[in-house]
Amino acid sequence: MSAADISSVREVNFDGLVGPTHNYSGLAVGNVASMSHGGLVSNPKEGALQGLLKMKSLMDAGYAQGVLPPQQRPDIGALRDLGFSGSNSDVLARAAKEAPQLLRAVCSASSMWTANAGTMTPSMDVPDSRVHFTPANLQSSFHRYLEPQTTGRVLQAIFRDEQHFAHHPVLPATPAFSDEGAANHTRLCGEYGEPGVHLFVYGRQAFGDVRSGEREPTRFPARQTLEASQAVARQHGLTQEQTVFAQQHPDAIDAGVFHNDVIAVGNGPVLLYHEMAFLDEEGTLNELRAKMASPLIPVRVPLEAVSMEDAVASYLFNSQLLSNPDGTMTLVVPGECQEREAVWNTIQNHLLAGNNPISEVIVKDVKQSMRNGGGPACLRLRVVLKDAERAALTGRVLLTDTLYDDLTAWVNRHYRDRLAPDDLADPKLAEESLTALDELTQLLKIGSVYPFQLG
Questions:
Q1: pLDDT in the model for residue 31
Q2: Distance (Å, whole) CA 162 – CA 159
Q3: Mean pLDDT over residues 184-196, rounded?
Q4: Using 50, 70 and 90 to split pLDDT, how confident is the model at 5?
Q5: Which residues are registered as beta bridge partners of 15?
Q6: Using 50, 70 and 90 to split pLDDT, how confident is the model at 401?
Q7: What is the mean pLDDT of the chain?
Q8: Are 149 and 183 in contact (CB under 8 A)?
Q9: pLDDT tens-digit profile of 226-256?
Q10: Residue 288: in which H helix or E strand, if any?
Q11: Helix crossing, 44-60 with 401-414: angle to 10°?
C-alpha cells in the first residue's frame, strides 16, 4: 500500500445497541459485577441512551463510529426447543414458573457487548485482501450461546460485498473450541494500514500436553481455549509470523477477569496492561517485539498501583484506547474509575504523566452496562477498514447526527424505563421488543435478520 492508502485506513468502532429487555439477572459466572447486581431493577431506556451518547460523543470528537442492532429477545424459540409449548404467553408463563433461570437467560441483552460478537482481521493482513469475520460461538454460557446465528446474519447483512468481505462459520460449540471473540484478541501495529500482529489470549488448553509452566484457574472457568484462537487464526489465513498466543493469568481469571479485555487493551503500537494480565508476561512481550514491524509500546500498570479488586471494580482496562492523527492516544474510561482513588491516581500520575502516547482521558457514564459487567471496551467491535471497504458497507450503520437523532427517538418510543426480573414473563414486553426491532431493521436498512422476520 502507498503512504496515501495507509493513511486512509481507519478503525471503526461498531457499538452494540442496548436491547429493550436489558435486565440484571446475574447470569455470567466469573463476572463479579454481573453476579453482584443480579435481581436489581434495570432501566433499559437509560442504558440504550447512555450507549448512544457515548457513540455520539466519540463521533463528535472525530472517531469513526458504527452501530450494531441487539438480538431478538425474549428468545421464545429457544424455550420451545427446551420443551415449553403453547402460545407465546403460555411459554413465558410456564418458563417463569418452572425454570425462571431459563427465562432470564432467553431475555438477556448481553449482545450489547459486541466485543464478543466475533473476531475480525483487516484486509491488509490476509492473502485474499478481504476483511475476514468469524462470529464467536460463546458456548461457555447458555444466554450467550443463543447469539451467534443472528450475529452472523447481522454481520453478513452489513458487510455483504463479497469483493471486500469474507465470513467464516462459527467454531463447533464444544468446550474444546470455546470462543469469546475479540474480547480476547488484539491487533497491534504501527499505522492501521500497515501489517499487524495479532495477539490471541486464551485461558486454557483443551488438547494435548499443557505448555510448560501453564496452569488453569481454580475458582472461575476459563472461557477461551487455545484451540479456538488457533482455529480463528487459520480461518483468516494468518501465519505463525503474524500471531502470538498467550495464556491469560489464571489468578486474574479467579479474581473476576473473565476476558482479556478486562485486564489489557491495545491499539496501534500501544499495549496497556496490568501486571497480572499474562501468565508469561516477559515471553509475551518479547514475542510481540520480535514479530511487530513497528516498536511495541508497552504501558504496564503494577499490582502495587492497582489491585486486582480495583482493576475489576473500575474496569480501567476495559476502556477504549483510541488513536489520534497526531500520534497521541485517548483513553475512554467508565465513571467508576473516578470512584476508586488508586485507579484515578494511576490514570493521572502513571498514564497521563508517563512516557507513553496516552495524552487524554475521557470519562463516560455507562452504569447500566457496567452493572452487568461490561465497560466501554465491551460495547464495541473494532473493524479496521479502507476507504473502499467503508463505502461498500450495506445499510445505514455509520453514525451521523441524523442517525443518532433517529435512534434516540426510537429508544424513547419503544423502551421501558424500569424492568424487574418478574417483568420478563410479561407477554407485552415480548410484543414491544419485536415491534421495536422490526422498526430498527428498517431504520438501519439492513433487511431481515431476526428469526421472527424470517418466518
A1: 45
A2: 8
A3: 96
A4: low
A5: 67, 380
A6: very high
A7: 93
A8: no
A9: 999 999 999 999 999 999 999 999 999 999 9
A10: helix 281-291
A11: 180
Measured in whole angstroms, the distance separating CA 393 from the mean position of its chain's CA atoms is 20
**Can you tell me the distance from the alpha carbon of 333 to that of 46, in angstroms, rounded to the nearest whole number?**
18
- Rounded average pLDDT over 159-184: 97
The Cα–Cα gap between 265 and 273 comes to 6
Give how far Cα 246 sits from Cα of 49, 147, 241, 243, 379, Å. 36, 26, 14, 10, 24
- List the binding residues: 25-34, 116, 143-144, 223, 261, 372
Q: Which three cell numbers stand for residue 352?
A: 497521563
Residue for cell digits 449482545? 111
Give the three cell numbers for residue 424: 420478563
What is the three-class DSSP state of 333? strand
- Answer yes or no: are the C-beta atoms of 143 and 110 closer than 8 Å: yes
pLDDT tier for residue 29 given thresholds of 50, 70 and 90: very low
Q: So what's the pLDDT on residue 216?
A: 85
AA letter at 142: F
> What CATH fold (topology level) applies to the domain 3-73+108-454?
L-arginine/glycine Amidinotransferase; Chain A (3.75.10)
User: Which of helix, strand or coil describes residue 355?
Assistant: coil
DSSP result, 404-415: HHHHHHHHHHH-
Residue 8, all three cell numbers: 486512509
For position 28, what pLDDT does the model report?
Answer: 46
First to last CA, the chain: 45
Q: pTM score > 0.90 for this model?
A: yes
Q: Which residues pair with 243 in a beta bridge?
A: 198
CA atoms of 143 and 366, how far apart (whole Å): 22
Contact 109, 18 (CB under 8 A): yes
Known binding site for substrate: residues?
A: 25-34, 116, 143-144, 223, 261, 372
Residue 281 to residue 278: CA distance in whole angstroms? 5
- Active-site residue list: 180, 259, 378
Sign of CA dihedral 195, 191, 294, 316: negative
pLDDT band at 6 (very low <50, low <70, confident <90, very high): low
Which grid cell sits at 253? 481469571
